[in-house]
């Protein structure tokens, strides 16, 4: 007979800080595609857009950032891939 495995529990980490959206703290209402310095903080070393759980951005700002990165790539301000 097959052994039944217990479902894995989600690990609780009591001392881990909750990530706060950097753009909300700064009061940013609009993310401009020409602000390359800001957008590079939301890219990985391989030029991929970081997910919300890694970047710590809220849903609204993550959507703005990803659209701005895509526009900056088309205008050749940011790379599509890194070397």
Main traits of this protein?
single chain, 83 residues, mainly alpha, extended
Enumerate the spans where pLDDT stays under 50 for 5 or more consecutive residues: none
Query: What is the number of helices?
Result: 4
Structural category: mainly alpha
Strand tally = 0
Instruction: Give the terminus-to-terminus CA distance.
Output: 52 Å
Rg over alpha carbons: 18 Å
Major β-sheet annotation: none
**Shape descriptor:** extended
How confident overall, as mean pLDDT? 89
Strand content: under 5%
Could you state the order of secondary-structure elements as H and E? HHHH
Helical coverage, percent range: 25-40%
Brief synopsis:
By secondary structure, this protein is mainly alpha-helical. It is 36% helix and 0% strand.
Written account of the structure:
The mean pLDDT is 89. This protein is 36% helix and 0% strand. With 83 residues, it is mostly helical. The relative contact order is 0.19. The protein has four helices and no strands. The chain is extended. The chain has helices at 22-26, 36-40, 52-55, 59-74. The termini are far apart.
Write the layout of secondary structure elements.
Layout: H1 22-26, H2 36-40, H3 52-55, H4 59-74
């Amino acid at each position: 007979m097959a052994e039944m495995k217990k479902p894995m529990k989600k690990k609780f980490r009591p001392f881990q800080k909750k990530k706060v959206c950097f753009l909300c703290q700064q009061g940013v209402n609009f993310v401009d595609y020409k602000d390359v310095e800001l957008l590079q903080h939301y890219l990985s070393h391989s030029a991929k857009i970081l997910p919300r759980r890694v970047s710590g951005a809220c849903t609204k700002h993550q959507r703005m950032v990803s659209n701005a990165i895509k526009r900056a790539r088309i205008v050749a301000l940011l790379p599509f891939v890194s070397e």
